Amino acid sequence: MKKIMFICTGNICRSAMAHAMLAYKIKLDKKENEIEVYSCGTSAENGQVATYEAIEAMEEYEVDLKSHRATNLRNANLNDMDLILCATMQHKLYILAYYKDLKDKVYTMKEYAGFSANDLDIRDPYGYEINTYRNCAREIEECIKELICKIY
Q: Average pLDDT in the 80-98 region?
């Protein structure tokens, strides 16, 4: 079974949305027995719920984010993951600073999806209006589409 981890800062917006979106698509494709999806945040407060705007943006994709609870990186077992996808280059560098032996498994979401090297970050929507979350969700969806092509 392939294990995929999404990472951002608080695990209440970007990584939570990516986690829920990929899990939803895997379920639709009946691949739940092949892929496990996880998410965490470098500064997450364990148990925190997703932002209202993230929940609303995901509803537009028929993805339910209401039951999501944040996990701090310290409570995530990165060593067990096959693929670690970060929201930004800063997250990637943070992970690599502490988990040097995982360097062949860590990418930004956009990097893994094949985006231009000039555009590898998914901007944090936290504190912004719903349209910023919608734009973030669109970027995540593009990454998820490419990710699915690579992992199936």
A: 98
Catalytic residue among 8, 13, 86, 143: 8
Domains of the chain, by residue range, sit at: 2-151
Q: Nearest 5°: phi and psi at 49?
A: -85, 160
- SS3 of residue 93 by DSSP: helix
- Indicate which residue of 13, 14, 40, 86 is catalytic: 14
Q: What is the pLDDT of residues 10-51, one digit of tens each?
A: 999 999 999 999 999 999 999 999 999 999 999 999 999 999
> Can 14 be counted among the known catalytic residues?
yes
Structure tokens at 130: 């719903």
Residue tagged active-site, from 29, 40, 104, 124: 124
Whole-angstrom CA distances from 5 to 41, 131, 150 are 10, 26, 15
Catalytic site includes residue 124: yes
Say how far apart CA 18 and CA 140 lie, in whole Å: 6
Q: Which fold has domain 2-151?
A: Rossmann fold (3.40.50)
40 assigned to active site: no
